[in-house]
Amino acid sequence: MKKYLKIIWNGISPSNPVLILAIGLCSVIAVTNSVKNALLMSFAFSFVLIASEIIISALRKAIPNEIRVPIFVVVIATFTTIAALLARAYFSSIYEAIKLYILLVVVNCIIIGRAEAFAYKNPVIDSLFDGIGMSIGYSWVILAIAAVRELFGNGTIAGLQVFPSAYKPALVMILPPAGFLVIGVLVGWLETTLKKKEAKK
Amino acid sequence: MSYLANLAKIFVASAFVNNIVLLQFLGLCSYIGLTDNMDASIGMGYAVTFVTVVAAAVTWIIDHWILIPYHLQPFLQIVSFILVIGSLVGLVEIYIKKMSPNLYKSMGIYLPLIATNCLILGVTFINSMHNFDFVESIVEATGSALGYFMAMLILAGIRERLRNSELPDFFKGKAIAFMVSGIVALAFMGFQGMIK
Asked: What ipTM, to 2 d.p.?
């Protein structure tokens, strides 16, 4: 059991896909202008990641080494299609807003990276927990960024009024440029913390 | 509105008003990763422009001649598009290597990187969502790719200057690239009024 907790914790913090590995940033910037968008995106992402890790790990002995990447892509594309159709059926208004980014989960570097680096080499149960850990790691980061941007840009979190209505929202926070600015600050903070940690050693 | 004016509108919209990198965040990996080198940015720009236009043409044909007539579009679109683009990149690579070794030397190393570039797949999905006809799709793809090229050149130029300037430690490396992109994106939002 301890081993599984360790795999999950690894995704949440030590090798967090967004913060530490800094990959798959397209969707991170695009969907974090409101908490609702980020929530739907993290559901879709987690579903695709966990399901494809399980399938790829179950098939890992049957997949020939030379054509593994096209096979990964087909598996991931299948689950992305399922996620997109489910999202369209149950959350159609949010889906219309972030449709493009849900479809593009299929080329998200995090998912192909985890398939290649973890699921292809480890048993099914381990891969399941790796998928859960990485999904939590991705989700908490984008939800946190989305909460900050929506709070300052609109005075709300997930549509609920937080700041008093006299607050004049800084509209730029929910527009595209602020996505870059917020990520820039985040990356700078991370790199400086990592440098400090290394200097301590 | 005449057909040509419509095409011009699509072009301006995709290159400036909805710049694919700065305002739609597609192709960010190569945008941030390669722009600390001007030559690499130019090579990548050419390669992406070329593949995006070819991919838009091929996926339009697949979408309208196979997927839509046989009612396969909702559930086979993603799989077929990504496989087509992947194999297309491979074919283009082989063809260029054979036909024009010089061109291959200048853009060949970037071609494998392109297969996973979300910009190309993104443009084909945008074409399909807007129900563009064949010519409109090509124009949209050209505009988006040139928008990407332009964004690459702008950021590469700025980063070349930044290398010689003193920055606070906090912003060294990728952080300043993101901050600069944010400011450039802000400037690009000024184009918004151009199209009604």
From this structure: 0.84
